[in-house]
Amino acid sequence: MRYDKIIFEISNENQIGHDLYTDTNNLSKLPKNLRRSSRVELPEVSEPMVVRHYTNLSNKNFGVDTGFYPLGSCTMKYNPKINEEMASLAPFATSHPLAPESANQGSLELMYETDLLLREITGTDYFSLAPFAGAHGELLGLWIIKEYHRSRKDFKRTKIIIPDSAHGTNPASAAVAGFDILEVKSNEDGTVNVEDLKTLLSPEIAGIMLTNPNTLGIFEKDILTISKLIHDCGGLLYYDGANLNALLGQGKPAHMGFDIVHLNVHKTLSAPHGGGGPGAGPVGVVKELVDYLPSPIVRKNKNKYEFYNPKKSVGRIGRFYGNFQVIAKTNAYVKTLGKENLSKVGGLAVLNANYIRKSLENEYKVAIDSVCMHEVVFDGLVDKSTGIKTLDVAKRLLDYGVHPPTIYFPLIVSEAMMVEPTETESKETLDNFINVMKQISAEAKENPQILKEAPHDTLVRRLDEVLAARNPILKFDDIKED
Ligand SMILES: Cc1ncc(COP(=O)(O)O)c(C=O)c1O
Mean pLDDT for the chain? Predict the structure, then answer.
């Protein structure tokens, strides 16, 4: 296997990049048992070598700042750099979570203000900014559902309904929260099958988890019927906000009947994410559920901001007050766009996805043949005779410098390829993607081998994914040169 040298391998004894200051006078004050007895193993490299090493590594990275990244369900939109500037303002970057409230008034104000902005976006009545990711928000939402029924002594409500198209974190979170899962089927048009839903309703239903638009990029047109059915049966509605980008400026989850909403602010509201973080999954609730929010949440008391513990709180969901700097980026994004521009986001995201859908429908099979929302799901190539799979198309895209879309999700589309262009991409970028996809479809007929062996121009070629999953090499020492 080819790999770049790690920094320890380029280390040379006594090469100095940074002189660590050692206060030898005070060293004796340190208790003996806390003192190091052997040299710390650090690489010895000069400053230019460190700079080159990490710059070269970063150049191998792919991100929204280097190219088109249509990773469906992930909303990889451009992240305005002003977000970073605002989040790293000294008073925010240096404030300490254990400092007294009086010393952190600016940070508390920012949290309170962000809560108000998110309420406005979702139509809910109060937010907890504590969860660190969407899935973490799901867990919190499910705890709230559980505590709500428990406090009403309605202990038999142990079941959560989840559509067969749902993101894997939904059933996983429900299971972690101790619920049993009932799967509701989708119609041919990708939406929840209301007749099937009716057969699942009973006094044991605690609630339903839905994302709207759903993971097929289709708006749940029966959402008002669904929310009435669930409420009439005594359950609550949880909104997985991963797809809220399509609705920005168009509609609010609480107006559709949702009681609990999480936002993936690292998707919808731009705070950058990738490689698993950093993110935040604030959870908003309608007024009937405010008392169950985790402790502490921020409130305004006269002209001061303070933390308080809601009366029936589910407890703490994480350390301190959430991913504060991600929340600061969220705040900066919403405020720099302002209400008018934020209202345009959903419409533009939907327009871009439909432009791609129409432009590629002759080459790639559209999974649900109707107007989509912010993302479009294809079901592989139209011409199945070539034997080319979605995986081959995704790998070939890498040779053209395009990040592949999400593949093989949602699970109910066998050759799924989920393209989410987001509102921030220009027509030129979309046209380039469309041309590359057409070129790949032509290659599938003329030279399928080139696709089966792709990628050709990347640092690592096609990986044995089964082997990688079953026998991952996680330690540097286990890497063997071929
Ligand atoms: C539909 C949907 N729900 C939930 C999640 C989980 O969000 P997170 O990755 O922030 O935990 C995702 C993530 O991609 C998603 O696409």
Answer: 94
